[in-house]
Specification:
Length: 221
């Protein structure tokens, strides 16, 4: 593991977290731990209004920081956006959000990091280059490798437009065949554009390219 991607184990009131040693290396998908609502400010459960006492104990949701009784905050769910090592206690509402995000981390994020092959066209050029596109290990950059090499910071991407084909007026399935990406050029307020097109030849796996584009669409959301 390179120095820039090094991680350390830290303990917080919410649990153990594996975080980057340097804040600049944080994933753009990460979330900061929320401040907990002070115990003295929540005499009752913030969901069901049950009064806390010696028997009914209070618990804090690790995602929103609010205070709940055990019944309203009993689920322990993975929370990769905060880098928790183990599943952590969350209220019902937050648990639903975290469960949906876990699918992204378990499936789409891995697809993006494995990469796929596309013909890439810069701006209004009529020439394209065959390149392997993938998400960097620290999830901060979109890396493109071919005869040329590009790295686009995820946080600088302003628009992701997925190109599809197969739609008919009467309905029918569509498939992702490409993408138009707009992003800010470092050190400038100008925007640049790249067009990604899945190759038609046998060497380009269409299914893999379509899965990569679908995952990229998730990132844009």
């Amino acid at each position: 593991m390179s120095g820039g991607d090094a991680k350390k184990l830290v303990r917080s009131p919410s649990g153990l977290r594996m975080v980057p040693e340097h804040r600049a290396a944080r994933s753009p998908f990460g979330l900061d731990e929320p401040p907990w609502v002070p115990d003295k400010e929540c005499p009752r459960c913030m969901q069901c209004d049950t009064k806390f006492d010696f028997i009914t104990r209070k618990h804090h949701c690790r995602r929103c920081g609010k205070c709940f009784c055990d019944k309203c905050c009993s689920k322990k769910v993975p929370l990769p956006r905060m880098c928790f090592v183990d599943p952590v206690r969350q209220c019902a509402e937050c648990a639903l959000v975290s469960q949906k995000e876990s699918e992204f981390y378990d499936k789409q994020l891995k697809v993006l990091m494995n990469g796929a092959t596309f013909f890439v066209t810069l701006g209004t050029s009529d020439k394209s280059e065959l390149m392997v596109c993938r998400l960097s290990n620290n999830q901060r950059y979109l890396v493109l490798d071919g005869d040329s090499h590009y790295e686009i910071e995820i946080m600088q991407i302003s628009t992701v437009q997925i190109l599809t084909e197969g739609f008919t007026p009467g309905g029918g399935n569509t498939r992702a065949v490409g993408m138009i990406l707009q992003y800010k050029v470092p050190g400038s307020e100008e925007e640049a554009q790249m067009k990604f097109t899945a190759g038609e030849d046998f060497s380009c796996n269409k299914k893999l390219s379509a899965a990569w584009l679908a995952a990229m669409h998730k990132v844009s959301k």
